[in-house]
Design goal:
The protein is globular. The protein has 10 helices and 11 strands. α5 packs across α6. Helices cover about 45% and strands about 20% of the residues.
Length: about 250
Amino acid sequence: PYAPIELIEPNTLLPQPGEKPERLINLINEFKQKALDLSIGCNPFMTFIFYARTIPLLVLMEFLECDIDKVTKLADFLGLKAYSMIDQKEVSLPTKSPDKVILIWERGTSSRKYYYPSFFERLLELQSYLEKVDPIIRQVRENLIKQAIDQIHVTFEPWKDYEPIFPFLLRKVVENATSWLYTKNGRVVEIGDPKKELPNKIWLRDFLIKISPIVSIGLADISFSTSWITLNFHSLAKEWIEKVIENEGKI
């Protein structure tokens, strides 16, 4: 939308015989730096949007130190949908019970001929393009995730209730497969495919709040329905899940 500050004639970038293409190299390096500056983990706006793509409403309000009306406007701007962590139904914002609501980014919409990606799908697409410009950008993002893992402290208690879930999640990470958790009356009651009933039913709201930090940093993505949720984990989540199991829910 803006004219470049300096117009560069392509033929001026070509070196004379025996010369190094210094101007062309400098231009490429500058382009790579601009791509890095725009990427998740370096650009504050891009990083915030990525973190906020799936987040409990109250967590976002406390992080931004703002009221429900301002967060409602932000959610509308970003295309975030609000869902109850009790019955998993979509709710309208503003709400009087922000502690029971989670914000989740929406997929795009389709017509007969076209697919219209959502705001967050375009964000991830941009990140993918940037990583192709310079592989360092992907490394920066993964380093950010690794650093964040060490700073996340969560307690899954009582551990006997959560214990059956994490070996299942670990297996799905190794298999690079989707983890299915089935819900009823606000609790996680079954896991897996085929389904396996949990001996102790955990509250879905508690589980979502506990795992929200790893979702925000990019270790997992959540999909929501009225009777189930799915989790798709990044390969780096394997180490984190192993720590949860090793420390019996205290990390």
